[in-house]
Amino acid sequence: MANKGPSYGMSRDVQSKIEKKYDDELEERLVEWIVAQCGAGVGRPERGRLGFQVWLKNGVVLSELVNSLYPEGSKPVKIPKPPPTMVFKQMEQVAQFLKAAEDYGVVKTDIFQTVDLFEGKDIAAVQRTVMALGSLAVTKNDGHYRGDPSWFMKKAQEYKRDFSDSQLKEGKSVIGLQMGTNKGASQAGMTGYGRPRQIIS
After folding, report:
1. Of 78, 128, 148, 200, whose CB is crowded by the most CB atoms within 10 A?
2. What are the start-end ranges of the H helices in 39-143?
3. Global confidence as pTM
């Protein structure tokens, strides 16, 4: 990875807008959840964007988080002991977390890119991914979520309706009000189309 110098002009504006999306209050909530979910062994980061990035950068904490949402014996991510120190191994660990998060049900648009975390390009995207993972865990309610359920919003769930054949047949003969109504108005007394207007002087 190349070292990047300071950005100027438009790239600086874009980067500052991305950095403004980072939410310090959300960081506190996510740290509380990760510690509650994985145990005190994962430690705590220093406050702020940089501390949060350094804490998650090697991918081990994220991997432990996603593993804790699965039952014993079916953990999706292998966590190396000791934690990886080589850059490409750390990025590989983060990539394994992202794959496991997608398999868990996190939508592709909510998943960050490895460089967003590793180079600190968009830590707010990392927050969004962890937030989406937490929301899914609360929604699934399968007994693996630990922490306060009010920390995350439940995702909308499908409400399946079963209609009988007779109810479906009845629905075919009803004209929905979106299409207008057939009561009240009629075309009685209208002249046929194409005839000239009768002007009587």
Report:
1. 128
2. 49-56, 60-67, 87-104, 114-118, 123-140
3. 0.70
